[in-house]
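Anyone have tokens for Methyltransferase? Sequence:
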Amino acid sequence: MLRVSCPTDVLELGTSFYAAKVLLAAVELGVFEALADGPLPARRLHTECGLHPRTARDFLDVLVSLGLLERSDILQPQPVYALTPVAEAGLVRGRPEYVGDFLTLADRRSYPLWGHLTDTLRTGEPGPGLDDRDLFDAVYADPKQASIYPAAMSSLSAPAIVALAEVFPWADQRTVCDVGASRGALLVHLTRRFPQLEGLGFDLPDVAPMFAEYVEQAGVGERVRFVPGDFFADQLPSADVLVMGHILHDWNLETKRMLLDKAHKALRPDGTLVIYETLIDDERRSNTFGLLMSLHMALRTRGGFDYTAADARSWLLDAGFRDVRVQHLVGAHSALIATA
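Reply: yep, here.
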């Protein structure tokens, strides 16, 4: 992200939501899906996405300037637009690193919520619309949220999941349990990549139908099964590896410690806990996205916050874990890997 070094940078940072909204609008309008099969002339792309001629040129050329689209010579009668490699990887549905569903959730829910940041900074209270129900009870009680939330969480984690598959010795493992599995994206990716693995997805009972549909479509239903439960009331399933991705940051410190204690009890001897998050750097200076995510949790929850690797290491050691190490994954994401 932009780190300011002059007054012009300050101006650009203060209006960076302009660019963010262009990206979010492009996802909503289907620009990247329209170009998934190859380049299109400008007028054809306008028609495919329902763009008005007055704004279409500037809109698409902002995406060019951001590195999301490529464009042929502007002097041609009708320029041709195409996806850049980064858009091809991250913004076309079905690709392993697709992040579009999370951006859709960000547009619909997070963008309005951040308009209340000043109030939250003054009061410490989350944004409007949060009642006293558990965060996920509220999510699944709302049909609109329930229909998009699991896909959005999978989308947020997609690049980290791809990276995690390459940096941990999964070939030496037999069983993996994803705690808070949502629709099962991690387990699908791992079991496709490592045929000997069997996966357990632990999540609230409301998630079961979405999980079953997703893993069956992926063709791994025989090696991946759903375990319904509530980690406040139930013990975690036993496995060689437990994974918590974007789980701990939802909760206050007491709950974080409780979940780590339960993970330690559930793991087999010498088993491994893998935690991946947008970990804040220990100096709290460089991982801007991690710091922003922590503010986001302040807006969305009553106690959630993101944390540094040093914070988590102390909690893990207190819970009885050993050999704690940090592994960078991709972008703002890193993993904590600890032995029970």
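The longest strand covers residues 322-330.
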